[in-house]
Amino acid sequence: xxxxxxxxxxxxxxxxxxxxxxxxxxxxxxxxxxxxxxxxxxxxxxxxxxxxxxxxxxxxxxxxxxxxxxxxxxxxxxxxxxxxxxxxxxxxxxxxxxxxxxxxxxxxxxxxxxxxxxxxxxxxxxxxxxxxxxxxxxxxxxxxxxxxxxxxxxxxxxxxxxxxxxxxxxxxxxxxxxxxxxxxxxxxxxxxxxxxxxxxxxxxxxxxxxxxxxxxxxxxxxxxxxxxxxxxxxxxxxxxxxxxxxxxxxxxxxxxxxxxxxxxxxxxxx
Length: 270
Prior knowledge:
The protein is α+β, with helices and mostly antiparallel strands. It folds into three domains: 113 residues; 83 residues, no CATH class; 71 residues, 3-Layer(aba) Sandwich (Glutaredoxin).
């Protein structure tokens, strides 16, 4: 998403965020209805064209939203109308933005329940499990398989291992991938949950599990470096041999033995 669409996406979501927060445990209901709006847009080219037509006024498109989704919660109709009033460089970006609003509402619900940190940790754990079991990742991401079948696989494997908000978030990404790879979608959800907790996410890979003291020290060092509270998501990978690899956003600090050996090999060859 770029340019005009990205601006519209960000502006409307900033407006919706306090609404979703105030909704609290109504967040799941709002999310369900927002996802239903997206499904309607995905199934009807005429509707999405009408709501993104630059020749129609914003008020005209807002009236259409009221007519199409009259039975939905007023808060859902309002945010969808706000999206419809905006300008979009690509019609598909409208549906994607409403999808993001649904995810935001689920995260707000988790926050109201006091389970947002749990959701973040479970999302990270699912990501690591999928990376370790590529056959499962392939099964969940296979577009030729019906969405209901992919969700059934997810429920069978993960349904009893995570909370309802985590499952709802992942279920939607499996059922309606919107052109985004599942691992990337999970990482974006982890980042969104961390941002909601006003924390940066540090993705740490180590040869062995870090002790509580090591985690506390590393989090403290990273907080000093970045000026924010840090959420450590630690994955154990024996193949790194020793040391740790830390990634915060696009920045990577790799202190593993494998990395140092690769650097040494490169210097010898080059």
